[in-house]
């Protein structure tokens, strides 16, 4: 379903932007105003647009799904609603029911390196302080799905994986296949990849127990904001 017409997201505070409720007064008020507008319009204020960077990230998630462990359930196309709090929703990439949710980020090289550096510290404070958008997306989805743990994942293919990736993209038969043609038509130098045997692994993970402090902080922020809609 298009994000423009997804009734579970229209006028709702969503995990991907929930960090704004903990931002500055101006950021918070702007986010609440946007949700008020969505409620009046009956649609998302966002208009979906194509970019190679976004298409790359989406396709990399599909590529990772093909490699991830069997204990995971793929749920990236589902929108979850908080079981008790109407107006709070989110979409996680993966779940191990009763254990954890996971979100995969397949960023372009600079952002991949910066975010990966943060999760490799295995330090919640580093992640929270430097990547509040990603951190509170994880926290929000964990709360909504009532699991104790959250897992941050980054992925970028190795140079040696590019041929496999091209075959995967060329064989894809979805209605949006046109978005991914550039993957198998581009030279290596035009695609984000990691050198073989370099500093970074292609997949990096950090699983942590969501702190009760952040569960309470975010829940209270959402409840307060909902009262202002």
Under CATH at level 1, the class stands as Alpha Beta
- Contiguous low-pLDDT stretches (5 residues minimum) are none
Indicate the CATH topology. Answer: Lambda Exonuclease, Chain A
Largest β-sheet summary? 5 strands, mixed
The radius of gyration is 18 Å
Strand order in the sheet with the most strands: 2-5-6-7-8
Taking all residues together, what is the mean pLDDT? 94
Task: Compute the separation of the termini in Å.
Answer: 25 Å
Proportion of strand residues: 5-15%
Helix content: 40-55%
Tell me the series of helices and strands, N- to C-terminal: EHHEEEEEHHHEHHEH
Number of strands: 8
The overall number of domains is 1
The global form is globular
In CATH terms, what is the architecture? Alpha-Beta Complex
By DSSP (H or I, 4+ residues per run), the number of helices equals 8
Q: Structural class given helices, strands, pairing? A: alpha/beta
């Amino acid at each position: 379903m298009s994000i423009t017409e997804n009734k579970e997201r229209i006028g709702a505070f969503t995990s991907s932007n929930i960090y704004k409720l903990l931002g500055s007064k101006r950021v918070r008020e702007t986010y609440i105003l946007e949700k008020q507008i969505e409620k009046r319009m009956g649609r998302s204020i966002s208009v979906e647009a194509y970019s190679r960077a976004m298409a790359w990230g989406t396709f990399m998630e599909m590529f990772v799904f093909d490699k991830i462990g069997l204990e995971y359930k793929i749920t990236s196309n589902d929108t979850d609603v908080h079981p008790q709090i109407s107006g709070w929703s989110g979409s996680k990439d993966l779940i191990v029911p009763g254990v954890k949710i996971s979100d995969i980020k397949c960023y372009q090289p600079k952002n991949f390196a910066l975010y990966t550096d943060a999760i490799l510290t295995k330090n919640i404070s580093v992640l929270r302080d430097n990547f509040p958008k990603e951190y509170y997306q994880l926290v929000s989805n964990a709360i909504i799905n009532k699991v104790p743990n959250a897992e941050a994942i980054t992925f970028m293919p190795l140079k040696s994986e590019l041929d496999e990736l091209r075959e995967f993209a060329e064989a894809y038969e979805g209605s949006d296949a046109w978005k991914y043609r550039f993957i198998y038509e581009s030279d290596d130098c035009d695609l984000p990849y990691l050198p073989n045997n370099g500093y970074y692994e292609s997949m990096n993970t950090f699983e942590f127990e969501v702190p009760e402090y952040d569960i309470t902080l975010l829940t209270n922020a959402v409840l307060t904001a909902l009262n202002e809609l």
